[in-house]
Description:
This protein is 32% helix and 16% strand. By secondary structure, it is of the alpha+beta class. The strands form seven sheets. Strands 1, 2, 3, 11, 12, 13, 14, 25 and 26 form a nine-stranded mixed sheet that branches. Strands 7, 17, 18, 19, 20, 23 and 24 form a seven-stranded antiparallel sheet that branches. A hairpin with an 8-residue loop joins strand 18 and strand 19 (432-437). The longest helix has 22 residues, at 11-32. The radius of gyration is 26 Å and the shape is globular. The model is unreliable at 1-8, 175-218 and 679-684 (pLDDT under 50).
Amino acid sequence: MDETLQAGWSLPRLISxxxxxxxxxxxxxxxxxxxxxxxxxxxxxYDFIVVGGGTAGSVVxxxxxxxxxxxxxxxxxxPEEPWLSYIPLAxxxxxxxxxxxxxxxxPQQRTMMAMNGRQSAWPRGRVLGGSGTINYNIHMYGSPQxxxxxxxxxxxxxxxxxxxxxxANMAECWRLRPKLFKQEMCTADSTDxxxxxxxxxxxxxDSRGEGKHIRQRQDAVQCYDPPLRITKANSxxxxxxxxxxxxxxxxxxxxxDDIDYGLMAAETNVYRxxxxxxVKGYLRPAMGRPNLHVLLNAHTSKVIWExxxxxxxEYLMYDVPHTVYARAEVILxxxxxxxxxxxxxxxxxxxxxxxxxxxxxxxxxxxVGANLQDHLNIPLYxxxxxxxxxxxxKLQTIPTFWNYLVxxxxxxxxxxxxxxxxxxxxxxxxxxGIILFNLGSVDKQLYSGxxxxxxxxxxxxxxxxxxxxxxxxxxxxxxxxxxxRGFVRLVSSDPKHPPSIDPNYLDHPYDVNCMRxxxxxxxxxxxxxxxxxxxxxxxxxxxxxxxxxxxxxxxDDTISLYNEYVSCIVRMAAITGYHPLGTxxxxxxxxxxxxxxxxxxxxxxxRLRVADASAMPTQISGTPNSAIIVxxxxxxxxxxETWNDKELLSQQRICTTSDTCEEEILGSLPGSAATPSRQxxxxxxxxxxxxxxxxxxxx
Length: 699
């Protein structure tokens, strides 16, 4: 009997059982198990249809469903987020996968020389949570001037900083600190932190002015379960980064609270070792509500109209077209690429393009798909001698996995972003930015693949990648407010065909000069005593295309040859910052390039809004993901105010041409009630696994 037992539990048998159980669990979770609220056949009519379950759409749908008499449908083109997405450092594994639209830009004329076909990879999330499920989790709102300029320069009334901060406080409702920041800055020792000019106790010290970094006092909001969770970097590298900033005389603090420019220890949307996207913080808690349905794997193709009033959308599921109607509004939150594409396929856009593809023009708006902006990053590798960075060897150990899986701690529990900074160049405003990415060695096949960079050029830009224990980090430097503008444009009348994406990088001469300043900012930091103390030295890639006759003095960054070399590096190896926006921007009604008004209503039509990064007229001074969440908070608030009259909402109809037309439309549609997706509880899953285990153990 003992021999039989030993034979039944031999090592090969145990390994086989483990593989079977693991594969079954992954298959079951991916293809069979779904969450409450997910339907595969929606109702015919809702009050609100939100298109796009990404960063913005998750917020809008969740907030609208807080009103019990609102009936909300959220449509997402991708599936639920996979378990791997909760590991912050696993973001690269999700890019170029089935959870990514995997766009490529049009060939660039002035940069991307190191890329295959001179095309940049543009990862965009095709998954619940959108790009917030596959990004690097950096939490930034931008500077007050960003939002104030929207209001002043673009007529975006109600979008100034003081108003936007209220919605930021709603997202981070644990925050009770703004008044304390002013006190801390006024009492801080000058050796620790730069003091603001002026009398801290005077009324004038609260106003913005030349040389002031302190933000105005804001009303704090309290709650027990904030939708937006934040973790602050606390590593040796982040400490060195901040010390370097102090050496350069830059303010050090939080760019989200107390300073407008300077350096901060990175704040990321990570909580207890898990990615904390808007799906996790907003949508998941709302998905048990009976008035919220979520439809997955449904590609929205166009808006359905009654005249110029949006009354629903058409979507494709497994290439079969379906229609669903909205009594109140359709809200497009599909992102800076898909939202303008849907608008154009719906007959809103440049009439010349629409006519070319035989799309009936509903409203001529030449700004649809225009004004495309993205941050461009120069990745700069920095060697260090101190063993304080994340390397492949450190990640690929049993203790690392154990520490993360059991305790939710360690290198896998963070996004590897240690520091973020920005600084002015000629004005007292943030102009160039920098991110410290704590990776000393990476899988060159993976990272060159997701960026579309040629492998030999990748090896030139990032040395020592064959050495899995190489210590170092990457500075990502950027021009925060580029002036180049690109476009998203249809190339087919088929809504499944991806549009042409041309960011038109470096089209404006300002951008090249600004990128050079960003490069020099990184060089200044590396030369500080703080970074020299850990043996930091910048790797300057030696591309044949950037060779300067007679060599170059690294310490002399003012000569024209140096500027020529830096400009060449920008044109060779700059990569996307993953921040496309602006393709359906906000603006006054008389602004020919504006697409939406300050209420986010699409100009010239009714019952259609845009609530995502498309509506942002300019880049912010940092990474925009959290600013998009704030935009979505404000959008949901405005929609609630518009439809706060329950009786008015109940009177809305999807068809008004006759008394019976709505009944006729709905009567022609198949089925009558929403059908929930297959939901598998834990007991069923465990029972299945036990049965498999029993069958596997039989001799």
